[in-house]
Design goal:
Blueprint: H1 2-32, E1 41-42, E2 45-46, E3 61-74, E4 77-79, E5 85-88, E6 91-107, E7 110-123, H2 126-132, E8 134-150, E9 154-170, H3 172-182, E10 192-209, E11 214-227, E12 230-247, E13 256-265, E14 275-287, E15 293-306, E16 313-325
Antiparallel strand pairs: 1-2, 3-6, 3-16, 4-5, 6-7, 7-8, 8-9, 9-10, 10-11, 11-12, 12-13, 13-14, 14-15, 15-16
């Protein structure tokens, strides 16, 4: 546990140092080419700030996301050598997550970003703790955005991102299952597993101001990933995201925005040990009354396909998103 805390602290310190360097590098560039606007805006529409579907704009900001949720009725059973159930250790799992991101615009056409994320999951009952164990994930991501096209109502950028996560997983039931399958307890078997997952992806982000009220965002990315428990293999990954936002401050003066979003992915950084693919649908309510500050609450439902032939699960989560532009 001491080593885990030490590693997390070192990662956080590295993130802080890199963010400071980016901040110092970004300031002179923007001072030379000041645009006069901070929040993402096209044709009189101020886009709703959201971490769920990132926007394509070349801006400088700091972001924090804090959330949690629950996964319902995650099935885990212990089988004998004939395939009969010995023990049903199914139940709900709870999870918490925390993330920070800094993006610095080095020029009006180019921005770099760095982030740190951590998460933990644990069963909500004795049965689900036995079946699902306890796990912690922490990692970082690095990326860049390049503006490709900017017009009165549309904005398009290309992106490149690299993610790396360290995972600590405590799985008692899996240890027992392995002993039953092998008819022996291996001296190398341990209830605590550690590993990493990594991914490199490239894609595009698109924004369209349909009117002063409505804004649309579409994102897509493909890449390759090394997965936890199977780091010798690589996996082709893809992700798609779509969002429609309604900013009532632009038309009625009421500083409220609503965002509906949908996401599809076959790679989930930090959760590749249990998740094979996922589809997410949700909505977000945002305060939109400040020129360079945004605050939102996102509620989402996730349908996830699990690895190792486990049944699919459904999760419900809530995240508070905070972003400051400068």
């Amino acid at each position: 546990m001491t080593n885990l805390v030490t590693r997390i602290a070192r990662s956080a310190a590295t993130f802080s140092t890199a963010a400071l360097i980016l901040s110092l590098a970004a300031t002179p560039a923007l001072a030379q080419e000041e645009t006069g606007k901070r929040l993402p805006e096209l044709a009189g529409h101020n886009f709703i700030i959201s971490a769920e579907v990132p926007d394509p704009f070349i801006t400088s900001f700091f972001r924090n996301a804090t959330g949690g949720g629950i996964g319902f009725d995650v099935q885990n059973v212990l089988l004998d050598t004939t395939g009969d159930t010995i023990l049903n250790a199914s139940g709900d799992i709870g999870f918490l997550n925390l993330g920070f991101e800094y993006q610095g615009a080095l020029a009006q056409w180019f921005a770099l970003r760095i982030g740190f994320e951590g998460a933990a999951r644990v069963g909500t009952s004795l049965e689900s703790i036995l079946g699902n164990g306890v796990s912690a994930v922490y990692g970082y991501f690095l990326g860049g955005s390049f503006r490709l096209l900017e017009a009165e109502r549309i904005y398009l950028s290309a992106t490149v991102n690299f993610t790396g996560n360290s995972i600590v997983d405590v799985g008692i039931l899996q240890l027992v299952q392995d002993a039953i399958d092998q008819d022996t307890i291996s001296p190398d078997s341990e209830p605590v597993n550690t590993g990493t997952d990594k991914a490199t992806v490239a894609g595009a982000r698109f924004a369209w101001a349909a009117s002063r009220l409505i804004g649309v965002r579409l994102n897509g990315a493909i890449g390759i990933a090394d997965l936890f428990r199977s780091s010798d293999d690589t996996k082709f990954t893809f992700a798609g995201q779509a969002a429609v936002g309604f900013n009532f401050a632009n038309t009625t003066g009421v500083p409220i925005g609503l965002l509906a979003f949908f996401k599809l992915s076959n790679f989930n950084p930090g959760a590749s040990d249990i998740l094979d693919s996922s589809a997410t649908a949700g909505f977000e309510v945002d305060y939109t009354g400040h020129e360079d500050f945004g605050l939102g609450l996102a509620l989402s439902w996730v349908g996830a396909t699990l690895t190792q032939d486990r049944p699919n699960i459904n999760t419900f989560g809530a995240t508070i998103n905070l972003r400051y532009y400068f």
